[in-house]
Write a structure and sequence with these properties.
By secondary structure, the chain is an alpha+beta fold. It has 15 helices and 7 strands. Helix content is 68%, strand content 9%. The N terminus is likely disordered.
Length: 502
């Protein structure tokens, strides 16, 4: 009877494929173990599988290690070394429990291998109750895994158990369940293989009852499967016909769509051609208008240049006459200053772009010297502060001196007693410098800040100033590739910022 069970067991196991683990390259030790023929050297093969199990366990590859332990176990009880076999399976279970990098499902799959081997030993020993307990454990473990192959293997194992202990009806029921499952999945060849294996093993074990029942079930299934196969083939042909009809309909629709696309593209091409003609006319008109505008701008620039030159000439012609007058009179001095400012502004606005002469200047003494020039012009208790680094900068000294002195003089005029005037220098980058002149005076109203750099905006009493000082400073800053502006963030008075880009 034992021989019959072993034959059935190994044949069924050979046809099952239940391992639900990732494919991992086998270690050298496992390959060496598999290379040993157990029939010639069963002890050597067993020892090498045990070494492979220990090596895999140390590396944390528990599932591969369990496979090697199970193979070594089979070689143990093949020679009736049951104690050693049970001990080895216990070690495999402990290795699975101690694993930290395995999911619960992977652990259940590994325990399944160990429990199944333990079940097979109890079957060989003909211990029904122990084998039944292991089968229950095996079923629980199979339910904890999501592997379909493991659940199929459980059906094989149940059948082996039932047939071994003479429970043929239960064995037939399990095989029927498996056949129905595979049939539902249209795995007809696998079902046929299962029945053929069952019949063959019944014959080998001289179990006439098992052969008769298996053959009867096989014939019944065969008739049913043939009908299902024909139904599947007919359904497949119908589907193929429907697919072909759908494909033909789709192609007809595609041809119609293509004709519509071609017609649409023709209309679009005609529309684009018309749009191109209209666009060309609009562009031609735009070009003509642009030429007129350029001509108008050129005439305006030439006219402005002539006006500026005319004003400068008038100023130059009037200056000798003004100098003959008594310049001690405020009105005469104002006219002389106005004439000089007009000439300076005209020259700055209309002189060709030319590179200014630059020189290295020590900033700290330069700033302190400029501040010293207004010390006698400020009101009492006004604090003069210079904040400049000890460094040199390459600037046009004449233009920068003119701008800063003008700003400092304005600050001196508008800063009340007890106020403060600052002159600061900051290096903003490798080629950017900044001079800042600030005071605590009344400040410039926000609505007038944009106009302070524009000349001739209002008729003024020249004895109170001609309003050309800041426009001249602005033009000088622009000439130096820089700019002069009012800091809108400064609220304690007024702060002018002179940016220079070297």
């Amino acid at each position: 009877m034992n021989k019959k069970v072993l034959v059935l067991l190994f044949c069924l196991l050979a046809s099952s494929a239940f391992i639900n683990a990732q494919e991992v390259k086998k270690s050298d030790l496992q390959q060496k173990a598999e290379a040993i023929d157990p029939k010639k050297n069963i002890a050597g093969a067993r020892s090498m599988y045990i070494h492979a199990f220990n090596d895999y366990s140390n590396k944390g590859q528990i599932h591969q290690g369990v496979e090697c332990a199970v193979k070594a176990t089979a070689l143990y009880y093949k020679e009736n070394f049951y104690k050693e076999a049970f001990d080895l399976l216990r070690s495999a279970d402990n290795a699975v429990n101690a694993a930290k990098n395995m999911s619960s499902g992977d652990k259940a799959a590994a325990h399944y291998l160990v429990t199944k081997e333990r079940l097979q030993m109890y079957i060989k020993l003909r211990k029904y109750e122990s084998a039944k307990d292991q089968l229950n454990i095996l079923e629980n473990l199979a339910n904890q895994t999501d592997g379909e192959n493991v659940k199929n293997d459980l059906l094989y194992t149940k059948a082996i158990f039932y047939y071994t202990f003479g429970q043929n009806a239960q064995g037939n029921a399990v095989f029927q369940e498996m056949a129905n499952k595979l049939t539902a999945q249209k795995e007809y060849d696998k079902v046929d293989e299962v029945y053929q294996t069952l019949i063959a093993n019944g014959r080998k074990s001289n179990n006439a009852n098992m052969v008769a029942q298996s053959y009867s079930n096989y014939i019944a299934w065969k008739d049913s499967a043939s009908a299902m196969k024909h139904a599947d083939e007919i359904a497949a042909l119908k589907k193929q016909i429907a697919d072909n009809e759908a494909s033909i309909s789709e192609k007809d629709s595609s041809l119609t769509t293509r004709w519509m696309i071609i017609v649409g593209l023709g209309i679009l091409a005609a529309a684009l051609a018309a749009a191109l003609v209209i666009g060309a006319l609009v562009l031609l008109r735009f070009i003509l208008l642009t030429r007129r505008q350029k001509k108008t701008i050129k005439l305006a620039n030439e006219s402005n240049a002539l006006k500026a030159k005319f004003i400068s000439n008038i100023s130059a012609q009037l200056e000798p006459t003004f100098k003959k007058l008594d310049n001690r009179l405020p009105e005469v001095k104002a006219l002389l200053d106005f004439s000089s400012h007009i000439q300076t502004l005209s020259e700055l606005e209309n002189s060709p772009a030319e590179e200014l002469e630059m020189e290295d200047v020590q900033i700290q003494p330069f700033c302190e010297g400029l501040m010293d020039q207004i010390r006698d012009k400020v009101k009492s208790d006004v604090t003069l502060t210079v904040n400049a680094q000890k460094m040199s900068a390459r600037i046009n000294k004449d233009y920068v001196s003119h701008i800063i002195l003008h700003l400092l003089n304005n600050a001196a005029d508008f800063t009340p007693e007890g106020g403060t005037i600052w002159l600061e220098f900051k290096k903003r980058g490798p080629h950017t410098h900044q001079f800042l002149v600030a005071d605590t005076g009344v400040g410039i109203p926000e609505e007038k800040r944009e106009d302070v750099f524009k000349p001739f905006l209002e008729i003024r009493d020249l004895t109170t100033g001609d309003g050309l000082g800041l426009p001249i400073c602005k033009q000088m800053a622009l000439k130096m590739n820089g700019d002069l502006d009012i800091d809108s963030q400064f609220t304690k008075g007024t702060r002018f910022v002179l940016d220079l880009h070297v």
